[in-house]
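Hi R.,

Quick one: here's the Ankyrin repeat and KH domain-containing protein 1 isoform X11 sequence you asked about.
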Amino acid sequence: MLTDGGGGGTSFEEDLDSVAPRSAPAGASEPPPPGGVGLGIRTVRLFGEAGPVPGVGGGGSGAAGGDAALDFKLAAAVLRTGGGGGASGSDEDEVSEVESFILDQEDLDNPVLKTTSEIFLSSTAEGTDLRTVDPETQARLEALLEAAGIGKLSTADGKAFADPEVLRRLTSSVSCALDEAAAALTRMRAENSHNAGQVDTRSLAEACSDGDVNAVRKLLDEGRSVNEHTEEGESLLCLACSAGYYELAQVLLAMHANVEDRGNKGDITPLMAASSGGYLDIVKLLLLHDADVNSQSATGNTALTYACAGGFVDIVKVLLNEGANIEDHNENGHTPLMEAASAGHVEVARVLLDHGAGINTHSNEFKESALTLACYKGHLDMVRFLLDAGADQEHKTDEMHTALMEACMDGHVEVARLLLDSGAQVNMPADSFESPLTLAACGGHVELAALLIERGANLEEVNDEGYTPLMEAAREGHEEMVALLLAQGANINAQTEETQETALTLACCGGFSEVADFLIKAGADIELGCSTPLMEASQEGHLELVKYLLAAGQAGGHEDYFGGHRSGQASGEGGL
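And here's the predicted structure, written out as tokens:
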């Protein structure tokens, strides 16, 4: 769509309406003019002349009065590099008449076309050779082409100006742009006419939800309350702040909306909503209207907590400068720093520490710290930052997990490597219930387990249930982990103290046939345990595994062990 950067007195809609292209009159094609640029077959012309479509003369002769229509016509030919002289009849000459449309005097007076018409008229007056356009006209034409979506009009020497493809694309693009503009204006007017006949039946809450400032102003002027709530119980100001509607928030505050209105739900304030959404301008606006920077939500979060969780550094800085409490705990016992660490927002953590946040503060109930949370989530950069800042990596949570153990739960290899490089204890710490390797084995994290073993992890260290890492891997059905641990020398027939469970009995209890097969082939004793592997599989109803164990027992010379009532138990006869 073409527009004129030079102002003018008409509106945008009027501009569009007045330049709709019209059909050319009959007889628009021209004979070669005596004063034109002769090219043998036809004349290259790019011109506008007033009056009825004239016979072509050298400088636009035959022009009629200024009120007549203007035939705006494009024709193109391939110009020889030698110049535009009077050569004719050459096979190299190839003429392509492109397109024409009519512009009347009203169109020419329109600022949208003023520059364009002047360019074309000045380019063709007195039969000017189109390849030798003055720099000012050239620049104006190229600006027109750029607006029409076409590239440069010519090369440095101007030879491309008379290229028929360039002129064809110019004419087509301009015509299409005008058509589209006129169609768009028609649609706009139709829509406006349709909307003008409709009554806006939206409620104030609906207008706020749509961010329709004018509709909100109108409804408020009609007497609606600025402190209404939505059907969901949200205040209008909170709705505007959570959606990022700055102008709407301005209007509501100007109409004396309650800056602390939590709605019927009594949950978050508008400041919390804006901070959670990352809307810095609204946060500043609310603070200018004396919003309480330390209000807490129903879950104990403050605006600072929400900003830290979202990673909005600039909002964090503004809130801290306005006196936000840096050590407030939410219902999970998390401080703003802990929320930032859990989400991996390093720059937020840096700002908080610069403002005095306690790096080793822990939650009241779960005893989590910023470091343990970052390790559990696997935020390597955050872990590195906190370690460099002096975080205690041997601090234990309520489950007696160190930072390394938290990393091992979800298999964060690189975090574990960093912690080990920083001196973390690879085996079970004092007073803990399990080792990092047991946690890795339980989760099936093979690469992490390999790292821990490489760093000296004890393969036979048992957790509070008496299970070794191999038993944990077998109980969870992690065949690859079982293979790794056995390859590293784990005791395949180790038993728990009280119930004499083995890796094989645990695998059979869980119905993990592949693991049971692997263990048996690796030499597991099928007779160990207070409850044998067969008994465990039978009790849990793993029929296929029972069949496998019976076959394995017979093949191993255990006919007496598996004979008699054992097979009956597997089919449901008798009891255990």
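Confidence is low (pLDDT under 50) at residues 1-105, 112-132, 557-576.

Cheers,
M.
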